[in-house]
Amino acid sequence: MCGIYKFDNVQISLEDFGQPVDMNLKNSNRWVKRAQRIPWIEIEKKYAKLFSNKKGNVAKSLRLGLGARIIQADYGYSDAEMSLQIQENPYLQYFCGYKAFDDSKPPFAPSMMVYFRKCLTSEIIGGIKEMIIAAEQDKAEKVAEEAEDSDDDKNSGTMIVDATYAPSQITYPL
Q1: b vs e for 136-155, b when ≥16 Cβ sit within 10 Å of the residue's Cβ?
Q2: Helices and strands (H, E) in the chain, number of each type
Q3: Would 169 be classed as within a structural domain?
Q4: Contact 69/80 with Cβ under 8 angstroms?
Q5: How many domains does the chain have?
Q6: What are the pLDDT digits (tens) for 110-130?
Q7: Owning domain of residue 43
Q8: Percent of the chain, pLDDT > 90?
Q9: Per-residue confidence band for 62, with pLDDT thresholds at 50, 70 and 90
Q10: I need a surface site. Which of 51, 67, 140, 173 has the fewest CB within 10 A?
Q11: What's the pTM?
């Protein structure tokens, strides 16, 4: 197994993310938007069940490991560069589940990426993708239902159309 796992069921918002005084992260950033679309808590609950080992090193959080794998897949960084990118970029730290920006040390040794790949197998990644897709579909259905409900409230009744005065480009045959 991958070690002992400590589950953190807190999904912080960008407003709760600790930032230095002169730093102002934007909700419009792609990594913030991406982090908000992923159902981290549900994924963490499912992932924690995989760890039955009661001895050994404490594992890194799923959000850090999965976040690092996603970032690495997007950019093609080496393992060493991956660790440095997360250390230096507050948006990537937020995406990976940090509570506050911390550039004092790398989030993990570059060799940890090997363990992330070992623990987060292609089957697990596939299951996580399915959870993300299902969450997105649920959100889309809720938005559609809300829109339908609001349309029903606002647009109930009969519409009468009067075309006595309507500009027209129709010409009659002669």
Answers
A1: eeeeeeeeeeeeeeeeeeee
A2: 7, 0
A3: no
A4: no
A5: 1
A6: 999 998 888 888 888 899 999
A7: 14-151
A8: 32
A9: confident
A10: 173
A11: 0.70
